[in-house]
Amino acid sequence: MSDLFLRPTPDATTADGADADLARARDGDNAAFTRLVESLRRELHAHCYRMLGSTHDADDALQEALLRAWRGLARFEGRGSLRSWLYTVATRTCLDLMETRQRRAVPVDLGPSSQHTVLDAAPRTDVAWLGPYPDAGLDGGRASPHARYEQREAVELAMVAALQHLPGNQRAALLLFDVLGFTAAEIATMMNTSTTSVNSALARARKVIAQRTPSRSQQQTLRKIDDGRLREIVVAFSAALENGDADGLVTLLTRDVTWSMPPLPHWYQGVDAVMDFAVRVPLTGCGSWRHLPTSANGQPTVGCYLWNADAGRYLAWSINVLTLDGEKIAAITSFIGSAHFAHFRLPDTLA
Asked: Which of 121, 151, 240, 277 has its CA 20 to 30 A from that of 204?
């Protein structure tokens, strides 16, 4: 599929310019349509990620949604906003994709934690895994004064993992109402249903989300930590792995810390189990590490590179997303695979 609608072009910055571009787009001007949707591209992509739990799937969904919008632009009569119409198209596209794809999972969904290190574990290729989301440029505020969640709160790992447990209609209703601030009546129109059905879906969805997410979001936690102190935590975590420093690592962790590594199915909970794994695998069993700081899912993150003697370089290994409780690390989620790095604009190798 062409990447026509994924390439940025100069924005139309005035209402007159937008109206002119809409008229040109209806006449078949591809560039005019691309200018129309440019300012909404980032938030539409984030919406697709929340719906689907995968950056790769979000890429596919956004591309397909914009293609559908382009082909169906004549049906946009201008009675509502272009933004609302594009969210309708994007949401329906995601719902269609969900019918043919597995819901995204994390290791905790598959079974209990391992108390001791599992060596030579094979990746589970039969599972559709939740993926990390590069949140650079994502607005930290609310999309609407009526939205319950900030934009970054709504891409946090716990939130996106919980969303995957909702049926498609509940997932869409929750995101459109609580994250994006659309009214129940607007959502009913977008989803070809009744306001009563939307409110019912919202109530059921909120119950599941409340059960599966912590009472304090990562954004609330991070606001209480000075930026300098946050950098210190990330640097200390990276340094502990690079130096094989078990004592340094354990001081950073909560007692009930977890470490998971999709696509590996095993995960560890509690500082004893996590440190047993850490000492036997990343600290002593893998070789030399290097790290680059980044941000994923509204959370502090490091890109991890492992030395490869044959290549004579450090190769991209995993995106490690850190979940904090106060100034301690409460969860480490290591998304293994070099394919994740391109989305974060991180290099494939380090000298």
From this structure: 151
Which residue in this structure is represented by tokens 């992509």?
A: 45
Q: Which residues contact 133 (CB under 8 A, 6 or more apart)?
A: 46, 49, 55, 58, 155, 160, 296, 297, 343
Q: Which residues contact 44 (CB under 8 A, 6 or more apart)?
A: 37, 62, 65, 86, 87, 90
The identity of residue 341, as a single letter, is F
Distance between CA atoms of residues 341 and 319, nearest Å = 7
What Cα–Cα distance (Å) separates residue 145 from each residue in 148, 178, 300?
8, 10, 27
**Distance from the Cα of residue 144 to its chain's centroid:** 20
* Residue that has been written with the tokens 């539409």 in this structure: 44
Contacts of 57 (CB under 8 A, 6+ apart): 48, 49, 97, 101
DSSP state of 150: -
CA gap 16, 343 in Å, rounded: 34
Neighbouring CB atoms inside 10 A of 192's CB total 9
Q: Running along the chain, 351 residues long, what does each successive block of 10 average in pLDDT?
A: 42 58 78 87 95 97 94 77 93 96 95 93 95 86 82 95 97 97 95 96 97 95 96 98 98 98 98 97 95 97 97 98 98 98 96 89
User: In this structure, what token pair is assigned to residue 314?
Assistant: 């450090």
* CB within 8 Å of 198: residues ≥ 6 apart: 173, 177, 184, 187, 188, 191
CA distance 351 to 334: 22
Alpha-carbon gap, residue 177 to 237, rounded angstroms: 37
Instruction: Indicate the DSSP class of residue 340.
Output: G
Residue partners of 210: CB distance under 8 A and separation at least 6? none
Q: What are all long-range contacts of 302-306, with beta carbons under 8 Å and residues at least 24 apart?
A: 302/234, 302/237, 302/238, 303/341, 303/344, 303/346, 304/241, 304/334, 305/349, 305/350
